């Protein structure tokens, strides 16, 4: 068997050197990748919604049911609204379910709504006004145009917890400026409207 010449040995050694370097580099790269691995975690993330609730003390009853109304007649009654919420919110009032009469009676029933403390559905005794919600002289027809929360009145800001506010509602059958014939045309007429309070979170 022939012994490799000195020249052949040098060529083989030179060829083997790059392979050895590449192999060593691969080992270093793999070792570096393992050494620099790392993780972190933000654990326990959870989301829960807040809750809002709005009630009143009328037990589902109508605030006004007036039969045989006559010109100039007026009355005031109260209702107490309670908000229970775990988040900041705002309570506004607006009209729903307006009843339009053929004679236009809704133009002559005027309302005023104020808010304050004390009193409630059974009586306004102890009621203390602190804010005008709907100014006096607002007709039911005008009130019917405030028909959604975005345009609602009152602007009662509530904080987390339970709090109450009383609303005093005054209505007047106002025929000021009408002739006797025009007043007579309103006989037998019927109109109506619901006033709704809504609480939305901020």
Structural write-up:
The chain is an alpha+beta fold and 202 residues long. The protein has 2 domains: 33 residues; 150 residues, Immunoglobulin-like (Sandwich), CATH 2.60.40. It contains 3 helices and 8 strands. Strands 1-2-7-4-5 form a 5-stranded antiparallel beta sheet. Strands 6-3-8 form a 3-stranded antiparallel beta sheet.
CATH class of the largest domain: Mainly Beta
Distance between the termini: 95 Å
In sequence order, what are the helices and strands, one letter per element? Answer: HEEEEEHEEHE
- Rg over C-alpha atoms, rounded to the nearest angstrom: 40 Å
CATH architecture of the largest domain: Sandwich
Provide the descriptors you would attach to this structure in a database record:
5-stranded antiparallel sheet; single chain; alpha+beta; 3 helices; 2 domains; 3-stranded antiparallel sheet; Immunoglobulin-like; 202 residues; elongated
Set down the secondary structure blueprint.
Blueprint: H1 6-35, E1 52-56, E2 74-85, E3 89-99, E4 109-117, E5 128-139, H2 140-143, E6 153-158, E7 161-173, H3 180-184, E8 192-201
Antiparallel strand pairs: 1-2, 2-7, 3-6, 3-8, 4-5, 4-7
């Amino acid at each position: 068997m022939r012994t490799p010449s000195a020249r052949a040995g040098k060529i083989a050694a030179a060829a083997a050197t790059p392979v050895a370097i590449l192999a060593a580099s691969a080992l270093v790269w793999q070792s570096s990748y393992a050494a620099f691995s790392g993780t972190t975690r933000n654990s326990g993330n959870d989301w829960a919604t807040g809750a809002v609730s709005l009630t009143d003390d009328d037990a589902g009853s109508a605030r006004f049911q007036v039969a045989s109304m006559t010109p100039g007649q007026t009355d005031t009654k109260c209702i107490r609204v309670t908000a229970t919420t775990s988040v900041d919110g705002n309570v506004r009032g607006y009209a729903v379910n307006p009843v339009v009469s053929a004679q236009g009676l809704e133009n002559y029933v005027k309302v005023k709504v104020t808010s304050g403390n004390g009193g409630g559905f059974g009586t306004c005794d102890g009621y203390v006004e602190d804010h005008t919600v709907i100014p006096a002289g607002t007709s039911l027809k005008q009130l019917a145009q405030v028909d959604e929360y975005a345009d609602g009145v009152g602007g009662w800001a509530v904080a987390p917890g339970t709090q109450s506010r009383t609303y005093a509602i005054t209505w007047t059958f106002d025929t000021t400026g009408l002739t006797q014939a025009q007043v007579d045309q309103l006989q037998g007429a019927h109109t109506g409207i619901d006033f709704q309070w809504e609480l939305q979170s901020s």
